[in-house]
Design brief:
70 residues, alpha+beta, 2 strands, elongated
Length: 70
C-alpha cells in the first residue's frame, strides 16, 4: 500500500514539473515574426508549428515566443 502511494506521489510531482514547460508557449498574432508584436520578457519570436487540441489544425509555422530565459 505504501509503495502504491509513493508511486502516485511520484507521478503527480513529475506531471507538475513537465506541465510547467508547456506554460511557456505563447502564440502571437500575425503571419510572420515581422508582423507580430514583441514578446513579453524580452523573449525572441520564433516560427513554429501550431499547437492544437484537435486534428483540424494546420501545419504551417506561426509566430510564437521562444522559451523563457532563466
Amino acid at each position: 500500500m505504501k509503495s502504491l502511494l509513493a508511486l502516485m506521489l511520484v507521478v503527480v510531482i513529475s506531471t507538475a514539473i513537465l506541465a510547467d514547460d508547456d506554460d511557456d508557449y505563447m502564440r502571437l498574432p500575425g503571419k510572420t515574426c515581422e508582423d507580430a508584436p514583441p514578446c513579453p520578457d524580452n523573449r525572441t519570436c520564433e516560427m513554429a508549428p501550431p499547437r492544437c487540441n484537435s486534428g483540424t489544425c494546420g501545419t504551417d509555422p506561426v509566430p510564437t515566443c521562444g522559451k523563457k530565459k532563466p
